Amino acid sequence: MNPSPTKPDIATPDDIRLLVDAFYGQVRVDPLLGGIFNGAIRDRWPEHLAKMYTFWGTVLIDARSYFGAPLRPHLGLPVEQRHFDRWLLLFRATVRAHFSGPVAELALDNAERMATLFLERITLSREHPERFIR
Question: CATH number for the domain including 55?
Answer without folding.
Answer: 1.10.490.10
